[in-house]
Amino acid sequence: MTAISDLSWDLVEKILSRVPIISIGAVRSTCKRWNRLSKVRVLCKAEAKRHQFLRFMLKNYKLCSMRFHLHGILDGEEFVDPSIREITGDSLNHVKVTKVFHCDGLLLCVTKDKEENKTTLLVWNPYLGQTRWIQPRNYYNRLDVYAFGYDSNNREHKILRFFLDAFDVSLFEIYDICSDSWRVLDITPNWNLMFYYRGVSLKGNTYFFAKEKIVLEAGGPEEIAEPHAILLSFDFTKERFGPPLPFPFKHYTEDTGTLSSLRDEKLAALYQSSSMCDVEVWVTTKIEPNAVSWVPFLKIDLKPLTGFEFQFHHDGSSFFIDEEKKVAVIFQIDESEMTCYDTAYLIGENGHFEKVGLGESEYHQDSIPMEDYSPLVCSCSYVPSLVHINNAFVKQTNEIITSCNDSV
Predict the structure, then answer these.
(1) Distance CA 165, CA 171 (A)
(2) Using CA atoms, how far apart are residues 165 and 170, in angstroms rounded to an integer?
(3) For the F-box domain, which residue ranges apply (predicted)?
């Protein structure tokens, strides 16, 4: 009878490449050799490539993994319901997750203690199974805004935190995961952040919806026309905001707008005017903290497809796109008279429109403040990461690599 230790390395590598990401814990418990190996190599490469739409979703304050299968979209087949699984673990069982940000295979979770209602930050590497609680310099505030990125020079991950008071930013702080320390940044913004639109991480930087700040001068007009939205980046390498960048549309406060990332290579922007049923999706051909260019991806009039003037929520949607199938999947809360539902809308070329229910939602405008509820889904597909966030593991990394190489 052949033991696991007797298998050839080529066969072991082929087997482990097909292991589902969610089953990596079982792999680690199989034998010590596989456990050591999983800490320095991504074993589930083939499975990760097949399930390119693996994402993380917030549902009723629980963090869930979610897969979408879009195989039959172009052939007119019925849509296969997404697979949604609640993620459990010691770090997540006793908290409510209110916001989640994805960057480089790591998740930043904004949480609340179920009993004390106290805000905390948790960084999690789902592949390595490592978690790290981030302590504040003083305390966290319910109105804090966060962004997650890394220094491109050394790949050190950082968290940007700033506090919003009546739409004005009063304090900027940055946390360095490697040094486990906070620093105050000297930044005087000349813009206002549209705080209900979550920032999106791309290539280590974070991009936001913002507006240039209006300054009323003495003796001037009492009212000035509302400026349209700008794209604003935060460069985690320079630890500074970049110059205002243009969107390919004129977005105002009541319009729908949200950002998404694609394979950590491109930025996508969804737009719908408050007075129109047309939905536009644009994709970047170039994106840097100080430069951007756009091309159209989709433009669809929803009125013929829905029979009425359908509008997505201007402050509570998230989305992702499939470039090959020319499909956008948009998530939002749908409210009936008594119940709210998490819902996905699929829109695509040739008038494709489909509504998929994702179950009841706890959210309701009368009981939960909008700032306590984040967009439903991390836009970027999850890719396993070997980034160590636990200092004890960082110190052991070289020893593990050496041990694995010797055994192989």
Answers:
(1) 10
(2) 7
(3) 7-47
CATH code 1.20.1280 region(s) in the chain: 1-50
Q: Which two tokens stand for residue 398?
A: 């070289």
396 φ/ψ angles, rounded to the nearest 5 degrees: -90, -5
Structure tokens at 52: 């390119």
Contact 260, 379 (CB under 8 A): yes
3-state secondary structure of 15: helix
Structure pTM?
A: 0.84
Contact 133, 122 (CB under 8 A): yes
With H, G, I as helix, E, B as strand and everything else as coil, classify residue 77: coil
CB-count exposure of residue 366 (10 Å: 0-12, 13-18, 19+): exposed
DSSP code for 377:
B
Per-residue pLDDT of the chain (408 residues; tens, 9 = 90+): 566 666 777 777 777 777 766 667 777 777 777 777 777 777 766 555 555 557 888 888 888 888 777 665 555 555 556 778 888 776 777 888 888 899 988 999 998 876 667 888 999 998 888 899 999 888 887 778 899 999 999 999 999 998 766 555 668 999 999 999 999 999 888 887 776 678 899 999 999 999 887 765 655 565 667 888 999 999 999 999 999 999 999 998 889 999 999 888 899 999 999 888 899 999 999 999 899 999 999 999 998 888 788 888 877 678 989 888 888 999 888 877 677 888 889 998 777 888 888 888 776 554 455 445 544 677 667 778 888 887 544 434 434 333 333 433
| One-letter amino acid for residue 132 of the chain | R
Whole-number Å distance between alpha carbons of 59 and 259: 20
Closest among 161, 166, 216, 213 to 192, alpha carbons compared: 213
